[in-house]
Structure formats: structure tokens, C-alpha cells
Design brief:
Chains A, B: This is TetR family transcriptional regulator. Chains A, B: Pfam families: TetR_N. The structure is a homodimer of 181-residue chains. Chain A has 181 residues and is mainly α. The first copy, chain A, starts with a helix and ends in a 5-residue tail after the last helix. In chain A, helix 4 packs across helix 6, helix 5 packs antiparallel against helix 9 and helix 6 packs across helix 8. The first copy, chain A, is 76% helix and 0% strand. Chain A is elongated and about 55 Å long. At the A-B interface, helix 8 and helix 9 of A face helix 8 and helix 9 of B. Chain A binds a DNA duplex (18 and 18 nucleotides) through helix 1 and helix 3.
DNA sequence: GTCTATACTTCGATAGAC
DNA sequence: GTCTATCGAAGTATAGAC
């Protein structure tokens, strides 16, 4: 029945998230996941076409949130877009820390996956937001540095969201607000 | 003879660097390297104990430069350490762009390698330098963001060193110089 | 519709001949 | 120092049980 299907599928995702986070994507075999779930490798591949599809399913919610954020920023005027982008992105990566870590674990290997097709244009839009839609190359470079740096810190730093959030917003504002040095 | 040994070894490194850069570490098999070099897989593994050892040999010069930079920063006083760290790090990653990209390609998988044992303490020393040896958590967070962000941009951005260097130094200074927002 | 058994392919690595 | 042959493990694929 579909209840069982969903249960098994969810259990696979739960176990895979745990093992991918602990041992990395490449460090976790289908055999490992199947053993922990209590099923066979073939059962995994009944629910997911291949190993990659398990990871893509895990990061899908984060990807949707990124799409939503970029859509929201499109409606913000040039004056407010920088702050909206900074706060929106910091909130997003703090909310999806595990997913961000998984994405970093498998890039650049996964960048050619169809599911990643639009990710490049999404991050480009975010960079434009961080740069306040400036055409200046130095502003865009600063935006790229902050975007990648914030994501990396959220993965690596174990402090909780309450401590991390203000520090990340402050450094982004300080680096991206022009005419201060 | 040793001349031949060195020639083959160097050729393996040359080909491996090219293939790793183009297809990624995981996307390049020993078979691929051997075919391009014109030898067998067993010959590769005569010169290098395992596949990982080829990559470690490729990034060794960059690792040595990082050790040198950290040693140099230890002799700089608190007042000048931030600028020295920023300029030293930007120069280093621009000099070893290919190696930095290779490292990012294989982390976090390689972080447990013995050769990476001291890398964590080296980057910690660099973070302290970026933060001007401040004990403030917000300063240290800003330092981590800039360090990771600069490395990521150097990998991703195809502009040459002359264009990139000033933009990177400026954003780091702006973000890390306190009392400006 | 859900799952098992099993076979196929590729990969990193080893053994032993020359 | 280099080769051929082969191993074990991993990801993948499919036929068929229930």
C-alpha cells in the first residue's frame, strides 16, 4: 500500500541524511543505507532511480526555498534589495544547515545534474542582490566573497543560530555597504 | 634509472593535474590517467602508493606556502597582522589557484588524511590573523567568512590576478576593519 | 505495488612475471 | 621499473517472487 511505500521511502531518506552527514556522500554506500534501513540495495533503487536521486530529494526543500527567496527579491527596489538579500540568505542557510553541508559535500560533482540547472542563475541573482544590483565589478566580487563565505561558515561553525545570525548579518553589511573606507 | 623514474613520475603528475582540473578527482580514474600517460595502472601505483597520493603530491607546494605564511605572521605585531594576513592569503590563493580548486574538490573527504593533520591549525592561525588576534566572536566570525569567501571566489571567478587581487583585498579590509558601521 | 536475488560493470589496488 | 592478470567492493540494472 502507499502508506508502506511512503514509510519506507521516508525511512530511507532519514537514514541517508544521517549517514551522508556523518560519513559524507561518497563515504556512504547503498549497502550501508540498506543495512541500516533493514532492506536490500534493490529496494533503495526501487524508491530512487540511483544514489544521486536520494541526495537530490534531501536537498530539494532547500532548493525550493532558494527559488522562493530569489522570486521575493525580484519585487524589492534597488534601495532595499541588499538588506533583504543578506537577511533572506542568512536565514535560509541557517534553516537548512544540513542541506547546505550536503550540497558543499557533492559540488562541483553535482553541478551538471539537471536539478542543478537553475542553481547557477539563482546564485547569480543572489549575488546581484548582495551587490545592491551594482554594475561595479568590485561590488560584485565583494558580494561573491560574502555569499560563499557565509555558506562555508554555517557549515563549519557549530554555534547555534542565535549566536551566528547577528555576526553574519553584521559582517555582510559592513563589507557590502559602500563608501565606508 | 632514476632519470626515467623522475620523468615518468612528473608526467603522471602533469597529466593528473590536467584531468583532475577538468573532470574532478572522483571523475578521473586511474585508467584515464594511465591511458593518457601511456602506461598501465600498476605503473601509476608503483610511483604513488594510491590515488590519493597523486593529489597530495599536487597540492604539496601550496601546503608548504601556507605553512610559510603562518610562520611569517607569527612574527608580525598585533597592529600589522591583519593587513599582512589579508595580503599574504590573497597572494597565496591567487598563486595556487589550481591547487586551491583541487583541495575544495576533495574536501571534506580528505580532511582526515594525515597530510591534512596540521591544516586545521594553520587555517585557525590565519583566521586569528584576519581578526587582528581579537578575542571577539563577531570578529572571528567575520574572519572565517572572508577567508572562505576569498578562496571560493578565486576558484570560481575566471578573471586574472591583476583584476581580482585589489577587489579581494578591498572587501577584506572593509569587512574586517572595526568601528566603521 | 513492493521487494529479493543475482548478475553486470567499473574502479582502486595487489601479486607476480619479466 | 613496467607489465598482465586478477581481486574485492561499489554503483547499477533486471527478472521474478509475493
Amino acid at each position: 500500500m502507499s502508506v508502506v511505500r511512503i514509510r519506507t521511502r521516508d525511512e530511507i531518506l532519514r537514514v541517508a541524511a544521517e549517514l551522508f552527514t556523518r560519513y559524507g556522500f561518497k563515504g556512504t554506500s547503498l549497502h550501508d543505507i540498506a543495512a541500516e534501513v533493514g532492506c536490500s540495495k534493490a529496494t533503495l533503487l526501487y524508491h530512487f532511480a540511483h544514489k544521486d536521486a536520494i541526495l537530490l530529494a534531501l536537498i530539494e526543500p532547500a532548493r525550493q526555498s532558494l527559488i522562493d527567496l530569489v522570486a521575493r527579491l525580484a519585487g524589492v527596489d534597488d534601495k532595499g534589495v541588499r538588506d533583504a538579500a543578506i537577511e533572506g540568505f542568512v536565514d535560509l542557510v541557517l534553516r537548512y544547515r544540513r542541506e547546505v553541508a550536503l550540497i558543499y559535500d557533492v559540488t562541483p560533482q553535482f553541478l551538471q545534474e539537471p536539478a542543478f540547472d537553475r542553481v547557477r542563475e539563482l546564485t547569480d541573482a543572489l549575488v546581484a542582490g548582495f551587490a545592491g544590483r551594482s554594475a561595479d565589478l568590485a561590488d560584485q566580487t565583494a558580494a561573491k566573497v560574502l555569499l560563499a563565505g557565509i555558506a562555508a561558515v554555517v557549515i563549519d561553525d557549530k554555534r547555534d543560530e542565535g549566536e551566528l545570525r547577528p555576526a553574519l548579518v553584521v559582517v555582510a553589511r559592513r563589507a557590502l555597504i559602500p563608501g565606508k573606507d
